[in-house]
Amino acid sequence: MRVLIAGGGIGGLTTAIALRHQGIDALVLEQAEVLAEIGAGIQIASNAAIVLREIGLESAIRAVGVKPQSYDYRDLRSGRMLYQAPLGDEAAARYGAPMYNIHRADLIRILFDAVPSETRRLGARVVAVSQDAGGVEVRLQTGETLRGDALVGCDGIHSAVRQHLRGNEEKHFANILMWRSLIPAERLEGLGLEERGNYWFGPGRTLITYWVRPKNLYSILASVPAHEVQRESWTESGDISEMLRSFEDAEPRARAMLEQCGSAFITGMYYRDPIDSWTSGRVTLLGDAAHPMVPFLAAGAGQSIEDAWTFARVLARRQHDVPGALLEYERRRLPRTTRIQAGARAAVKLMHEQDPQRLRDRNGRWKGMARIDPLAETSWGLAWDYNVVKAVEGPPGEVRNVTGLREGKRLQRPESQRAFELWKYAFRPEDVARGHDGLREAYDRFLITNFPLPESVEAVEDELGDVRAFRVAAPDAPRGNVVLHFHGGGYLIGSAKGSLEYAGRLAAAAGGACYTVDYRLAPEHPYPAAIDDAISAYRALLARGIPAGSILLSGESAGGGLALALALALRTAGDPLPAGILAVAPFTDLTVSGASVRAFNGDDPAANRDLLTFMGASYFQGHEPTDPLVSPLFGDLTGLPPLFVTATQGECLLDDTTRLAERAEKAGVDVTLRLAEDSVHVYTIFPFLPETRATMEEVAVWARRHLRRNDTRPQAAE
After folding, report:
1. 77 neighbors 251 (Cβ within 8 angstroms)
2. pLDDT digits 0-9 by tens, 388-414
3. What is the average pLDDT across 189-217?
């Protein structure tokens, strides 16, 4: 077997080495005439280092590269530490290999030298591709034709092989330019730039800096808004005055570092959208040709290296069926690379915020994440915590998609699988790439599209105190009983409007009306905004003449945790308590320490450890996450009204539910616990599920038992 490889960069060379490691011949076709020393620094994270170890190159990387001890995030203007991600030996123990920083030219040279000279050709530009049942043929710019059993396009974002497969496609400019420079060590003496990732973040700009040769050469990647660079061409230039102007307000150490740049070159930050296929017959794509991404998860080279090992290993197992092998390679890689593409774009957005309020929100989230994720696993683990050498030996369905769900996960019943797939496709790659803004729009779209309010139910916008809400009820519903409902969404997403259909069913179960509340969301409104709004809404109902005994609190996921926190706050304040609390899969532990969070991470289509950590930290930020008004699980539950709590076996928040029920029972609370089998997170929002109908019927009986019918007509809202 012979594989043709178009492109002799990191992906192409690693593919050739990995193929030879599997006993397969490869020919690398690189269009450049010479192997020039281009680029600046590159970061090889644990996931890629594992592959380089497997092909015998880790020692060579270690000999010339640097093993950073941490990523240190600092404010560009003040120099204040914002966040720290420990690396070094700690990361090696956690992820299976250390991270290395290295000069891109050093890495290319190591890879190039590992490919025998007879299997690599410079000045070989692929201009045409064809294939038949028995093989594939490429034509070079010189007119020469070459034939092989397979062709893998490793020729970057401007890939000729990709154009052959898919035609002309648009690439996207992120409106960010990146200055790259290398500084000799002697010019940086006295600045205290340790062997760490020394990062600075300011409005719309970042400095990503680190050593690439130990105590010898320092790399700088300075990103700025595109409009700040005015020139006809972005080429190497000794004039760095434009770069210095973009960082004129940088703190003294960062400014002094930049002033030592003798020259710099500029590149634009480009990417393409994820695609649903990159294979046709005996031709496939790899690395930036398949999934070009923005460089802000230290992941682009790593994903190419993962691709290379997977391609070689799968092809070695299926040499008798080359097209089938290439499709399996794609199946194993496409979901993961789509996830990393989206995550990298979200990181770019997060790190280049310009609005002062959004900068405060971001920094507050980092402060919260440092409290519950001190090892930064949820920040970087999605890229680094992956052993592709091990993964490629397992089933393809174990790979995780853009929302962190294992692709092969299925439920048993058709109706539960239907709900599972609704969750699975609720968030698209573009939604994830836009950060919490995209997640908010997607979640409302998911709820409003799939669960519209029936014509038989009315929803009227209202105001409870100073909190927006909707009163939802059937026109002929009896007056008196009221459900005060708080939607889910991790305190970060969700809305009252998205919960109208469910609110209608809650109103029917209680025999009255349901007020669903638009409490303020994080990160713009961190704790105590949500609990303050909940208290205001409850007291507004009392002020309208509705007795506490005629009110049920309700919430799903974060809303369930908020309902419980409200009850704790009311008890402490001496307010009359509601008749009961319905909590569906309540998010009660924002330290994200429940065993089920890790046990079912990747099996739950609605929640995973990374997302729950991100959401929780966005809410409590600098506040203590074990405060019972943040995490009710840690509160004294004595004296709470009757609880009806339910969740699904196998969901991430299962332990948040069961631990709450256990502690409440020990505190003497009347607890009804129901656990569904073969279902999904907050299953009660899916009206077509049999378990939803059964639970809502039981809730109706439970509500009638605990509510005291109010026969007085509530006062109108002022």
Report:
1. yes
2. 999 999 999 999 999 999 999 999 999
3. 95
Q: Which of 334, 299, 341 is nearest to 431 (CA)?
A: 341
Active site residues: 210
CA–CA distance, 210 with 197 (Å, rounded to integer):
5
Residue 236: pLDDT band with limits 50, 70, 90:
low
Distances in whole angstroms, Cα of residue 18 to Cα of each of 54, 304, 311, 332, 347: 9, 12, 9, 17, 30
Residues 6+ apart with CB under 8 A from 460: 470, 471, 472
Are 191 and 257 in contact by the 8 Å Cβ rule? The answer is: yes
Who contacts 218 (Cβ-Cβ below 8 Å, separation ≥6)? 182, 183, 184, 185, 188, 193, 209, 210, 211, 212, 257
**Total Cβ atoms within 10 A of residue 180:** 21
Q: What are phi and psi of 250, to 5 degrees?
A: -70, 150
Above 80 in pLDDT, residue 309?
yes
Are 631 and 590 within 8 A, CB to CB?
Answer: yes
| Tally: H helices and E strands in the chain | 23, 26
CA 342 to each of CA 301, 347, 363, 707: distance values in angstroms, whole numbers, following the listed order = 16, 9, 21, 47
> Using CA atoms, how far apart are residues 138 and 126, in angstroms rounded to an integer?
6
What is the mean pLDDT of the segment spanning 622-647?
A: 98
Q: Report the SS3 class of residue 269.
A: strand
What are the structure tokens assigned to 478, written together? 């009896």
- Which phi-psi region, left, alpha or beta, contains residue 424 (left: φ > 0; alpha: ψ -120 to 50)? alpha
Query: Average of pLDDT values for 494-509?
Result: 98
Neighbours of 416 (CB within 10 A): 22
Mapped onto helix, strand or coil, the DSSP state of residue 167 is: coil
Q: What are 676's two structure tokens?
A: 């569904």
Mean pLDDT of 58-84: 96
| Residue 222 CA, distance from chain mean position | 24
Distances (CA, A) of 562 to 441, 487, 531, 571: 22, 9, 7, 14
Q: What is the mean pLDDT of residues 422-441?
A: 97
Q: What is the pLDDT of residue 718?
A: 37
Q: Whose CA is closest to 715, among 558, 541, 493, 498?
A: 541
Q: Return the residue matching tokens 């070079």.
A: 140
From the list 180, 176, 204, 193, the residue with the least C-alpha distance to 256 is 193
Is the link from the previous residue into 523 a cis peptide, with omega within 30 of 0? yes
**315 and 328 Cβ atoms separated by less than 8 Å:** no
Q: Is the whole model's pTM more than 0.90, yes or no? A: yes
Q: How far apart are CA 404 and CA 339, in angstroms?
A: 8
* pLDDT of the residue at 266: 87
38 pLDDT tier (thresholds 50, 70, 90): low
Mean pLDDT value across the chain: 94
Distance of alpha carbon 293 from alpha carbon 274, whole angstroms: 9
CA-to-CA separations, 525 to 125, 127, 609, 614, in angstroms, rounded: 55, 55, 22, 15
CA distance 125 to 135: 20
Q: Residue 63 burial by CB count (10 A; 0-12/13-18/19+): exposed, middle or buried? A: exposed
